[in-house]
Amino acid sequence: MSIKKKDESVSEEIIRDLVDRKLSWPRVKELMSSEKDPDRFDKYIRVLQEKVPWKEKIVLPIHEHLFIVCKNGKLIVKTFCGEELGDYRENWKLKTLVHVRETDEELQEIFPGLLKPDPEVTQLREFYCPKCGALLDVESFPRGYPVIFEFLPDVESFYTKWLARSIPCEGMEPSKEKQAPLQDKSADVLKKWVGEEEEEKSEEA
Known about the structure:
Blueprint: H1 12-19, H2 25-33, H3 40-51, E1 57-63, E2 66-71, E3 74-79, E4 84-87, E5 97-101, H4 104-108, E6 122-128, E7 135-142, H5 155-162, H6 186-204
Antiparallel strand pairs: 1-2, 2-3, 3-4, 5-6, 6-7
Helix pairs in contact: 1-3
């Protein structure tokens, strides 16, 4: 059975079933390969907005448990259960609970037998929501490798150039993008941590 006929829009009901994983693989494949409706993104956002237990407007989903939302005129990252992980330009992983698997026994739980990587070389980092404990991401990298910030979207360009509209964030200050290109601001979080640690040391002294 076809999901969509030519020149027929995909309904919110179908998108809702897609999000809820109720569609069969042939239907999902057809939906993926068919021409996208101009309002597909808006329908998708409405479906997601129905599901989250908070009122902030979803501006861009990162994945099923993580969203960029508008709050008080600013774009922040928020988990499905409502935990706020800061400015979307900062690596949200720095605000999560992290479990690092690095011993032979810990890695064996995930990679049995010969599949297990060398614990002398590899770390498996699991990032969990501090509020509900949902697993948000997993990284497998050599020991000492920096935490990866995989997705820093140019939200303004997406909305203004692709969707031909302004970012749906009431109270957001006018963009300074021309003067200051989109930047990864994760270093600001690390500087803050260093400052707090130095302040604690000075107080103890």
